Amino acid sequence: MKNITIAIVAIVAAAVGYFGGTSMNKEAPAPAATETETAAVEATLNAVKAKGFVQCGVSQGLPGFSNADDAGNWTGIDVDVCRGVAAAVFGDASKVKYTPLSSKQRFTALASGEIDMLSRNTTWTMTRDTQLGLNFAGVNYYDGQGFLVPTKLGVKSALEMDGANVCSQTGTTTELNVTDFFRENGMKFNLVAFEEADAVVAAYDSGRCDVYTTDRSGLAAQRTKLANPDAHMVLPEIISKEPLGPVVRQGDDQWFNIVRWTLNAMINAEEMGVTSANAKSMANDNNPAIKRLLGTEGTFGAELGLSNDWALNIISQVGNYGESYEAHVGPNTPLKLDRGVNALWSQGGILYAAPVR
Amino acid sequence: MFINSNNLSAFINDARVRNIGFQVLIIGALAFSVWWLMDNTLTNLENRGKSLGFGFLVQTAGFEISDTLGTWLFDYEVGVSSYTDIYFIGITNTLLIAVLGIVFASIIGFGVGIMRLSNNFVLKYFATVYVEIIRNVPLLLQLFFWYFAVLGVLPGARNQLEIWGGLGGLNITGLYLPAPIFQPGFGLVFLAFIASLIIAFVASRISKKKQDETGQGFNLLFIIPALIISITGVTYVIMGSPLDWTFPEFKNTGPIFKRGFQDDAGMVLVPEMLAVLLALTLYTAGFIAEIVRAGIIAVSHGQTEASYSLGLRPSITLRLIVIPQAMRIIIPPLTSQYLNLTKNSSLAVAIAYPELVSIFAGTALNQVGKEIEMIFMVMSTYLIISLITSFFMNWFNARVKIVER
Ligand SMILES: N[C@@H](CCC(=O)N[C@@H](CS)C(=O)NCC(=O)O)C(=O)O
Question: Is this structure's pTM higher than 0.80?
């Protein structure tokens, strides 16, 4: 009996050790944690500079948002935010390392310090913002949840789905929204929730589920992986608000600002007509707003702890928001997503970034 | 002075003192590490704006869980059930797989293990191929194989394979079977069944005693089933047959999503569960087969020969002479296999079977973000399940152990 008690104590200690260990900031192993606490938390920029790259959490493969090709090169609008941050910090957009994460793993990976930022089609919700020790740095795609069904079923509306088997991914807002939707409409359904996105696609393709539900942008992306994409249709209903954006750990305002203003710079650049092609020449434009953005006037970069050409580097290496959108998810890509609400506020959308001033 | 230091070195060199000293040191170091790790964890959590606490356990959960034993047992309802319910639903589904898996894996494992030693070439060859394939393919791959390659190609949701002339059915949404409905009074029938088991057990003890003393026992092969059936059966009839059945119902008309097997008739074993059970059972059985084979080989051949020369038939020799001796070699590694099976059930998260890791340490954790508390609960749960399994197996080992003289 005594042996067992000791064994239990040892195992519990090991467990606490393991999780205690992972939640410890790796860059600053601080035995006297209390003294260095502020440093440990606010050190992201310094730690990133010291190691020479941004460790960015992305999806395990969502075309258009974050997806790796056969050579291991990541592309997508979420990837562009990571690259933008690297361009701002290092003047070199390629200084990013990617950590593919399932929906379930992503917040733990960020909270534990395994990644510096998360840019992985993640919905900004109040729970996540207030209870997980995280902060959302903005929105890079306004989305809503939808349903994909095989066209041959002849279904025209989500309200006809009473009794359906629905596939989704665990650890998402998707599970909650779809449950709400069916409850609200007095319909029954059976939820089959997988950990990995590829398993959801395979299960839906095999007919285990009649319905695939996730963000509509996600449906457009995952659909390209189906055996026969044209045999499926997205139902008209949008059942939720899914503002997707980059996330950082709570408590490091400097790093938070860098990520937020990287995104803002890309959106403002589009509004001002600054593109990757003309950014260098526009730095000497007469428009003071453009000058401030591109660092020829003011000390905005320095206030972020960066060089003054931080935004110039973002735009010339990664492009403005519109360029990124068209290249990865726009009408000329397999995803074929119209700008819709993601157009600039000045063009009928809701994209509106605070000014550089 | 001289005498003093002599005393001191004698004290230090005393084996007992040294032992105690080392133990105190180790425990002290352990206690310090625990304190340090806890303190570090708490500080870091605080820095991230997070706190420790189990308050989330009473919050209600907002997501649907697919129909399984757990959701049925705990009456899962979205917006009503709490995260505590989720925890117990997870445990139930984990235990279901563990118990069924252990039973089936043991049966198949023993069968295959004995087959590998058979003189029949076909049996032997088949068993060898089985064991080699099963043991050399990663379990996760086997899980995907059963789920996507085997169960994934069953008829779609609005078709079916009938089994037993329509009493049951099978398609990609699961295996549909008749389900019992217990009427009031069934509890008594169940009690009668338990009572009959106890009576049968007592009878077998008496018989064994008599056989030990006189060499003559009763023929229990018929008496025991007769006892059980008659006692249970009579109670069943007296209580007015308090057991009904509902049968799976398959519809071909109505709204498209309402076609196929109906929710409220019969019961369903979802394909996720079937795949997990198949994969874990067959995988573990491969290892058990090897353990059984090794156990049997380890029993000296002289035992078998001696038994044959006494005129005992091969089947009796195996059952009464070889297996009991092999058991003491088999049980300890068998225990590890049972523990492995239980823990491996957490792979089920890959194919959406709602067990403990999947719904509690997965979905629920993602909603409430209490990593440390929840993982701690899950680890403790596995620990407790494993300890109980080990205790039981040790007890069993002590019981079947041959008393050596
Ligand atoms: N926006 C939702 C859903 C995000 C999500 O995980 N979507 C899935 C389905 S589109 C996905 O990105 N899967 C890709 C992957 O896991 O790698 C959320 O933040 O909870």
Answer: yes
